[in-house]
Automatic annotation (TrEMBL):
It comes from the Eukaryota. One of its GO terms (molecular function) is protein kinase activity. InterPro entries: Kinase-like_dom_sf, Prot_kinase_dom. This is Protein kinase domain-containing protein. It comes from Mesorhabditis belari. Residues 1-98 form the Protein kinase domain.
Amino acid sequence: MISPKNDIYSLGLTLWEMVLREKPFAEYIRKFHRGEDFDREKFNADIQAKRLTRIRGTQCWPEFEELILSCVNFDRRLRPEAGEALLTVRALQVTDFLQPLPDRPI
């Protein structure tokens, strides 16, 4: 299904990956001698069976983590609208909340 809420999900995954410097849902990545492949069937099956109900938290600043987790909610109806997400990011900027992270190897 094409929806602006899918873009919000992508934003949340990108923010999550930037904060943790890891690939989201790494446990579903299969390694091959020629590279990697995401096990979409297992991922979808785990969501359907409710074995996977949300992405792992970031353990970052609570307000930022709340934004990220709301964007990647598996129920697209509960994801924020783009304008709402933008307002949250802007509010965090105004409060000097977003500071550079210390260097950490990837």
